[in-house]
Structures are given as structure tokens and as C-alpha cells.
Design goal:
The complex is a heterodimer of chains A (about 350) and B (about 575). Chain A has helices at about 5-35, 45, 50-60, 70-85, 100-110, 125-130, 200-215, 215-220, 230-240, 250-260, 290-300, 300-310, 340-355, and strands spanning about 65-70, 90-95, 115-120, 150, 155-160, 165-170, 190-195, 225-230, 245-250, 265-270, 275-280, 315, 330-335. Chain A is of the alpha/beta class and about 350 residues long. In chain A, strands 1, 2, 3, 4, 5, 11, 12 and 13 form an eight-stranded mixed sheet that branches. A five-stranded mixed sheet of chain A has the order 8-7-9-6-10, with helices on one face. In chain A, strand 4 (about 150) and strand 5 (about 155-160) form a beta hairpin. Chain A is globular and about 65 Å long. The termini of chain A are far apart. With about 575 residues, chain B is an all-alpha fold. In chain B, about 70% of the residues lie in helices and about 0% in strands. In chain B, helix 3 (about 75-105) packs across helix 15 (about 315-345) and helix 23 (about 500-520) packs antiparallel against helix 26. The chains are: A alpha/beta (about 350), B mainly alpha (about 575). Chains A and B meet through helix 1, strand 2, helix 5, strand 8 and helix 9 of A and helix 17, helix 19, helix 20, helix 21 and helix 22 of B.
């Protein structure tokens, strides 16, 4: 094969590039493997430590990683207020859904880096991992009312928010939706958004509808040719867009945000509805356990609670918080305890039978 | 007369005498041992995320499989999956081949302008691409549907297109995957050259006859590879059915798996059992694919030495350009424009109102630390993943291509292992890797390294297939000449094969970078602080219904991908640009 000088130079260049790429890749690979450590249990470190010492060590740690399934506007508000008091502690929010559970389990099992705190609306994970959680040792823990702990002394409720909200597009729906039976109106047939995924909270919501309105209601609702969406958030966006005209589940903060943006939607909270409570727990496997406890305590302070409530997206666990809404006592709070695999399969069957038409 | 016999002089004894048979066997064995070690390492890499999952299904007396009968509607899910697989493959093959043939028929100047454009659907992230289609073709308020209903040919309050229906999910998937087919076929056509077609024309064959009796048969290996790849991609489709199918309760196996993975505790045995049909179909497909291709050496083209000789008629140019531009418009430009418009809208609505345009979503999104970190992480893991997968792919392709020189069954095992990762849906692969990296003692959970390892494994099929197609098109003359001239295998590889494959390497680097920067299923399960990529951030925004933020992140991802694509093509040189 005759090689021209140009081809020979190109060959040498390609070998140089290959070697450089190999060296860079090996370096990047070694560096990227860093970040994992052996088993970790911060409970011994925390035990008996004064709160001032915890705060001092939290500032040294410099970061707190919060896994959550919350509305990120709320989390950003909370982080901003937190940093006014603790500017040295960076708040990193990792949002996810139920995929976070398996990730957290792996973190706890291997002691590798991950969440310091876990905030979510499904208490059963905390109940399963009671032994893997740090106690809430800050001064504000004493403010939590009785009955508002998922795990006494360790996992408090933070805020309750309605999950059932009657939302409609004001351009397409002339008559407001004010009660559950309004969703059975002929003018809404084929235009109602519903959450299609029967996970733990979804199953409990179906259970609520059945208990409150009877299985006949689910069948009648199914006859309305529901359109399934991934979440209350996407359903609400679809109503605002006019893709559907109504839904019965939503996220209050998203509703307010859409209305502020000029979306033609309106909403009502039903008299008897379904609500979710948001809880938080600090992990023993946390890389930044002191920062986790300080952030945990901040969430139970008046400043933290006010940041969570914002313009009125939910009911604070503490009293006297500005803009805190009242979740009526007639509301059913989500309880995840009954929903094992068999129970979930049962409610999936109910959904398939009545709603998926 | 006496004759004298010349005696053959004895060869002088020399320390450099030919090696004894025992030493020669040692040299051969060392090479074989090296390949066997490589096969074992590759096997561990590829099988690690697959075998533990299947073991879960077989555990406890195959409890996972036993409970398959309890899953309601599984038969319909399987049927829908097969419909999607076959339908999208057929449409993708037809559309992609038509695109490649149309591009090939264009004059060189047009090709230099339009050559890259059919790849645009791949440049957009899959979640964003399908959301763009929703904005366009939502039956009630999609922009295209609204426009069509304004025409006298259509009436009603909804449609005419329902992007959430099964036929349109198939059409969407096929349209999206046509870009993959276009890449494969275009490379095949370029390497094939025009010699055979010209020879047929000189002998009196018309254009159609040349196409049907010369060009298409010579492209058979390409069609088989492309068809196999696209079929497996269609079967394991996740993003499209997830976004489009939910509304009308259309489920495929991948979305069904995702449902199980969203449960807690995760029912691994049942999820693994539900995913088993995909594995089985994929293994069968791999075997059929190998049988149909046969000996790839029968289809070696002569190269592109005579491109651009013939003149192209104006009619051919017009028709070809219409096909290409029409596809690009529907498959890429319109969804991109829809995303751009939604990114500057206060919220998604079916109406177009330029008076309400705002850049607030850009400033909100770009100010998020999580987004910035995700951009950096995406670039790091994608680039490292590209380099490692190409290097690994080239070695594997080399072993498969030169199977005559390797001991049985090394090439066959290499071929099988190289195709296996394609058979596993990305979401299922993600959980398999989570199993592995979360094991005590491995300690890679939540690190970029775990993402990189997973990325390399899932990209092996693409890297290998691309290099195999390149090696098949190059033929064996150059490498055999190098070996005859005394160069060893390694020297031949680096000084002959690699330079000649430069365009193919750059093309595969570009495609693998695009695929990795958009990778979602595996990334979702392996994410952790410091190892969160843009596709997961985009999905997190989508799952909260924040469509304008989805649109902003999608545009960021498109820009990142486009930059990476251009860099890869620049390294590959002018031929790589021509091939794209």
C-alpha cells in the first residue's frame, strides 16, 4: 500500500489522538469512581451531642442533600429561607418519584453517598426503615403536635395538602364543578383527566372514592371515558392547555402558578376530600448527618413552615403560620400502611375493570 | 556422458533458526488465551445486568413466572408490543431506505446541504421529541390538528390525527427510528459506490431495474442489521408509549415493567418474568439476523471511487428533495418549533399568541444548580462512554470480522454477547445494573463510574455493528496486504484498519454520543447526587407537568448534542461529514 506523506501524518495524528483519548478516559474513569465510601452510621456520632455542636459541624459539612417528591418551587423557597440563617450549608434537592425508594435502599445497604434527608408523601417507606433513621434532636421538634409524627421522635409530618381538587377549564366548561357527581355530567364525557398509575397513593385514592361514593361511582366515572395522565400535575397542565377540560386531582401550588400565568382554569376544594401529608426523615447513612439534622429542625421552625406553605398551598403542622390553609377534618389523610403487593394488585384490578375503557 | 547432481546445500545452523514446533504453539496459544480472557471479561460485563434479573424470576420455584397468569391484560400488552415492533420496523425501514436513496440521488451540492438533516430526529432528546409531537398532534388542541380543522377538508371538534392512538404511536415510533435506518443505509450506499450501478446502466438496465436487482440486493447486510436493530428498539420502546399511550391505556411491555419498578417494594421476580418475552424474542432475532446475513464478504462494494459521475435530472432532484425535506419538516423541524414556542409561553395552550412570549422559563431553568450539574455530568459520562465503547466495539468487531483466524467458538460468542444488550429494555437494564452496583463490596452506587459502565455495555451493539459494516465494506485486501508485507496484527490494526475506518469511527462516535446524551432508562435508576444527567432532569420536570421547563431543558439538550455531534464529525474529517 502506498502511503502519501499526508496519509502518514494523518496516521501518526490518529495514533496520538488515540493515546490522548485513552489517557484522558482512564483519568476520568478513576476520578468518577470516587464518591463512594464504606458503611456509615451517624447515630453514634450524634448521640449526646449538644445542638450547638451539631450546628457547628453542620456548617463544616457545608452541604445537605435532600431527596424528595415535592413541588420544586416549594423546595426552592425552603432552601432560600434556610440559607438566610445557614448560608454556609448548600441545599441540593434531588427530585424523584417512587423510583427513589429502591435507590435509597441501595444507599443504605452499601453506605454509599446519596441522600442526607428524605422528604416524601408516602409514609410507609419511613415505617419500613425506622431503624435507619436519625432522631429529630433539634429544639423545634418539641413543637410538633401530638399525633403528627409518622415515627415518634424521628419522622414528623410537615404539611398537609389536598390531593383531591376540582379543576376545570373555564373556556370549555360553563358550569363550575362543585361536587363529585358533577364529574358524571354528559358535557364532560371523554374530557376528564385521571391519574392512570395505581401506586400506593393512587390505590388509597380509589379506596377513598369507593368508601365515600360507592363502587357504583367508579363504574359511572369509568363510563365517562377518562383520559389517563401520569400525575395530577400533568393532568392539570392538560386542563390548562384545553386538551381535557376537567380533573379531580391536582397540586395546589401548580394551580396557583398556572392561574398567575394567565391560564383559563378555576378550581374548588371538595367538602369531603383526600389529602396527602408530607413527612421528613434524616438518614443514619447520611454523608452530612449534622446538616441533615439542622435542615430537619428548620423545617419544623416557623420560618421553615412559612416557606413550605408559601401563598397557601397547604396546611402547616404548626399553628399560626401565615397563609396556612385548613384541611377540613372531613378530609381523609393518606394512609399507606394497608397497601402491600396484594392490596395494590386488587386496586389495579378495580381500576382496570371500571376506569380503563 | 556423465551427469553431476548438484546437492542442495544444507542450511547453516543458526541461533535464529525457525522456532521449534513447541515454541510456535506457545505463540498461538498466547493469542488465543488473550481472546478468551477478553471474551470472559466481556461476558461478565454484558451478563451482569441480565442474569441476576432472570434469576429473580426463577427464584422460589419460578414464582415470578407462576404469577404471570395473574397479571390482567398481559396478553393485550404483548400483542400491542409486537404490533409496535413490526409496524414501526416496517415503516422505519421503508422510510429510512427511501430517505437514503433519495439523498443518494441528489446532486453533490444538495447532498452537502441536506445530508445531515434526516438525522435531526435523533439529535432531539426522545422525551422532548415525543412531547413536541404531543404539542403538534394532540387530538383536541394540537397545533397541526387545529390547522387541519380550519381547512374545508376536515371537520369535527377533535382530530383528524390522534397521536395517542395505537396506529399513531406506531407511526411516531417508525418515523423516529427511520433516522437510524437512514444512517445505516446511507453508509452502506456510500461505501457501495456507483460502479455496479453504472455497469448495469451501461448494459441497458433502467434506474428502477438497477435499484431492484443491483443496489438493494447488495445492501442486504445493511437491511438485516438495520432491521434487527430497529425491531429490537421498537420492541423495547419506552418513552413514546409512556408519554403517548397512557392517556388511552395503551401499554407495552416496557411501560408495564416501569409500572412494576415504580412499586415499592419492587416486585423483581414478576418484573423479570414480564420482561422475559422481550429477551426471548431478541435472542431469536439475533440468531435469525446472523443466518440471513450469511457471509458478509459476498456483499463487499468497491468503494466510492466513481461517485458523482452521472448527471441527475431535475425531476429526480425535485422528488428526492421533497422526500427529504418533507420528512425533516414533520419529524424534526415542526416538533422543534413547537418546543421553542412552548418554552417561551407562560404555559402550554393550544393557541398561538406571540404577545404572551416570555423568557422567564429560561432564566428560571438556567439558574438551577441541578441543571448546570446535570449538563456537566451528561458531557463527562457521555464522552468517556463514547471512547470506551468505541474501543471495545472495535476489538469485538475485529474478532467477529476475522473469525477465520480465531478459534471456534470465540467469534460466535463475541457476536452473541455484542448483540445481547440490545435485547434488554433500557428500564430493565437499569434495574439490573442497580442490582450489581449496589452490592456491598462493589461500592460504585451513585457514582459516575456506574453510569459509564452501564453506558458502555448498552452501546456495545451499536459500536460493533457500525464497525462491522465498515469492515465489511472495506474488504480484506488492505489488511491482507499489510500482513503479507510483514506487519503484525496489532500494527495492521492501528496503521491500516483504524485510519481507513476513520469516517466510520467518527460516524459511530457521533451516533453513540447522541444516544448516550439522551439515555434515560438506565440513567434514571443509577442516578445519584453528582451523577444526575439531563434526560432524568427533563423527565422529572415532565412528571410534574412543567411543560415549558421541559421545553427549555429539551432545547439545552439539543444544543449540547449538536455541539458534540459537530466535534465528532470534525475529528472524523471530510469523509465523515460526507457520509453523514
Amino acid at each position: 500500500m502506498n502511503c502519501t506523506e499526508g496519509e502518514l501524518m494523518a496516521t501518526r495524528r490518529s495514533m496520538k489522538w488515540s493515546k490522548a483519548a485513552a489517557l484522558l478516559t482512564a483519568g476520568a474513569f478513576v476520578l468518577s469512581a470516587c464518591g463512594s465510601s464504606g458503611g456509615r452510621d451517624a447515630s453514634e456520632e450524634i448521640e449526646g451531642k449538644s445542638w450547638d455542636a451539631i450546628i457547628a459541624d453542620a456548617r463544616s459539612e457545608g452541604e445537605v442533600v435532600v431527596y424528595n417528591n415535592y413541588d420544586q418551587e416549594m423546595v426552592t423557597r425552603v432552601a432560600t429561607e434556610f440559607n438566610k440563617i445557614y448560608p454556609e450549608i448548600k441545599v441540593t434537592s434531588e427530585k424523584g418519584n417512587q423510583d427513589m425508594f429502591a435507590t435509597l435502599d441501595a444507599q443504605i445497604a452499601t453506605g454509599t453517598d446519596g441522600a442526607d434527608l428524605f422528604m416524601n408523601t408516602l409514609p410507609f417507606w419511613f415505617e419500613k426503615h425506622e431503624a435507619d433513621l436519625l432522631p429529630a434532636v433539634g429544639p423545634n421538634a418539641d413543637s410538633v403536635p401530638d399525633g403528627r409524627w409518622v415515627i415518634e421522635g424521628s419522622v414528623p409530618n410537615l404539611i398537609a395538602a389536598p390531593y383531591s381538587v376540582f379543576v376545570w377549564n373555564t373556556d370549555a366548561v360553563n358550569q363550575p364543578i362543585e361536587k363529585w357527581d358533577d364529574f358524571l355530567r354528559p358535557d364532560l364525557k371523554g374530557k376528564i383527566a385521571f391519574k392512570g398509575d395505581v401506586n400506593v397513593s393512587g390505590a388509597d385514592f380509589l379506596s377513598f372514592l369507593t368508601d365515600e361514593l360507592g363502587e357504583g361511582y367508579l363504574e359511572a366515572l369509568g363510563n365517562q371515558n377518562l383520559k389517563m395522565y401520569q400525575s395530577g400535575g400533568t393532568a392539570t397542565q392538560a386542563v390548562a392547555a384545553g386538551e381535557v377540560v376537567a380533573t379531580m386531582m391536582s397540586v395546589p401550588s401548580l394551580l396557583m402558578s398556572l392561574q398567575k400565568s394567565g391560564a383559563h382554569i378555576d378550581y374548588r376544594f371538595p367538602e369531603n376530600g383526600f389529602a396527602l401529608e408530607m413527612s421528613v426523615g434524616a438518614l443514619k447513612a447520611a454523608k452530612h448527618p449534622n446538616a441533615a439534622l439542622v435542615f430537619n429542625d428548620f423545617l419544623l421552625s416557623k420560618e421553615g413552615q412559612a416557606a413550605m406553605v408559601g401563598d397557601g398551598v397547604g396546611a402547616a403542622v404548626l399553628e399560626g403560620i401565615p397563609n396556612s390553609v385548613e384541611v377540613a377534618s372531613s378530609y381523609r389523610m393518606h394512609d399507606s400502611a394497608p397497601y402491600d403487593s396484594a392490596e395494590l394488585a386488587k386496586w389495579q384490578g378495580v381500576a382496570d375493570r371500571y376506569l380503563a375503557k | 556422458m556423465s551427469t553431476a547432481t548438484l546437492e542442495t546445500p544444507k542450511a547453516p545452523a543458526s541461533p535464529q533458526a525457525a522456532p521449534t514446533p513447541g515454541r510456535r504453539r506457545l505463540k498461538v496459544d498466547r493469542g488465543r488465551v488473550g481472546w478468551m480472557v477478553f471474551v470472559v471479561v466481556l461476558g461478565v460485563l454484558v451478563l451482569a445486568p441480565i442474569v441476576p434479573l432472570q434469576w429473580q424470576a426463577l427464584a422460589d420455584g419460578a414464582d415470578g413466572y407462576a404469577r404471570l397468569g395473574d397479571v390482567s391484560g398481559l396478553g393485550e400488552v404483548f400483542t400491542t408490543t409486537l404490533m409496535l415492533g413490526f409496524g414501526a420496523t416496517a415503516l422505519g425501514l421503508i422510510l429510512g431506505t427511501a430517505l437514503a436513496l433519495a439523498m443518494n440521488a441528489l446532486p453533490a451540492r444538495w447532498q452537502s446541504i441536506l445530508g445531515f438533516m434526516p438525522v435531526l430526529p435523533m439529535v432531539m432528546p426522545s422525551v422532548a421529541h415525543v412531547v413536541g409531537f404531543v404539542f403538534l398532534f394532540s387530538p383536541d388542541n394540537g397545533y397541526v390538528n387545529t390547522f387541519l380543522r380550519s381547512l374545508p377538508f376536515f371537520d369535527g371538534e377533535t382530530g383528524p390525527v390522534n397521536v395517542y392512538s395505537v396506529p399513531w404511536i406506531i407511526i411516531y415510533t417508525g418515523t423516529h427510528l427511520a433516522a437510524f435506518v437512514y444512517l445505516f443505509v446511507r453508509t452502506g450506499l456510500t461505501n457501495l459506490g456507483a460502479d455496479y450501478g453504472l455497469a448495469a446502466r451501461v448494459n441497458g438496465a433502467g434506474g428502477l431495474r438497477v435499484l431492484l436487482t443491483v443496489t438493494l440486493p447488495l445492501l442486504r447486510p445493511t437491511f438485516v442489521y438495520a432491521g434487527g436493530v430497529v425491531f429490537l428498539l421498537s420492541l423495547g420502546q419506552f418513552t413514546g408509549p409512556l408519554v403517548l399511550g397512557g392517556r388511552e391505556n395503551v401499554d407495552v411491555l416496557a411501560t408495564k415493567l416501569y409500572e412494576y419498578m415504580g412499586d415499592y417494594p419492587v416486585d423483581y421476580p414478576l418484573a423479570a418474568a414480564v420482561g422475559s418475552p422481550l429477551l426471548l424474542v431478541a435472542v431469536v432475532m439475533v440468531l435469525i439476523q446472523r443466518r440471513m446475513v450469511g457471509s458478509a464478504k459476498r456483499f463487499v462494494g468497491q468503494g466510492a471511487s466513481s461517485r458523482g459521475v452521472e448527471t441527475v435530472s431535475k425531476t429526480t432532484t425535485a422528488v428526492s428533495a421533497t422526500i427529504v425535506i418533507g420528512y425533516v419538516l414533520i419529524a424534526a423541524i415542526l416538533p422543534l418549533l413547537a418546543l421553542v414556542y412552548v418554552s417561551v409561553s407562560p404555559y402550554w395552550s393550544g393557541t398561538i399568541d406571540f404577545g404572551a412570549v416570555t423568557l422567564q422559563h429560561f432564566s428560571d431553568t438556567l439558574s438551577q444548580v441541578a441543571v448546570y450539574n446535570a449538563i456537566v455530568t451528561t458531557l463527562v459520562v457521555s464522552i468517556v462512554g463514547v471512547v470506551l465503547s468505541i474501543a471495545l466495539g472495535m476489538v469485538i468487531a475485529h474478532g467477529i470480522h476475522h473469525k477465520d483466524r480465531l478459534a471456534y467458538p470465540i467469534p460466535q460468542v463475541l457476536d452473541f454477547l455484542a448483540n445481547l444488550p440490545l435485547s434488554v429494555p433500557a428500564a430493565l437494564m437499569g434495574f439490573g445494573f442497580l442490582f450489581v452496583v449496589a452490592q456491598p463490596g462493589i461500592g460504585l452506587y451513585g457514582t459516575k463510574a456506574s453510569l459509564i459502565i452501564a453506558y458502555v455495555v448498552i452501546m456495545i451493539p451499536y459500536a460493533v455493528r457500525y464497525h462491522l459494516a465498515t469492515l465489511a465494506s472495506l474488504g480484506s485486501q488492505s489488511t491482507e496486504a499489510s500482513l503479507v508485507a510483514g506487519a503484525g496484527a496489532l500494527r495492521t490494526f492501528f496503521l491500516v484498519t483504524v485510519p481507513l475506518s476513520r469516517a466510520g469511527i467518527a460516524s459511530s462516535a457521533a451516533m453513540i454520543f447522541v444516544l448516550l446524551s439522551h439515555e434515560f432508562g438506565v440513567s434514571l435508576l443509577l442516578k445519584g447526587p453528582g451523577s444526575n444527567v439531563l434526560s432524568v432532569v427533563l423527565y422529572q420536570q415532565y412528571s410534574t407537568g412543567a411543560y415549558p421547563a421541559v421545553a427549555v431543558i429539551a432545547l439545552i439538550m439539543t444544543v449540547v448534542t449538536a455541539i458534540g455531534l459537530l466535534v465528532a464529525l470534525k475529528i472524523g474529517g471530510k469523509r465523515a461529514l460526507e457520509n453523514m
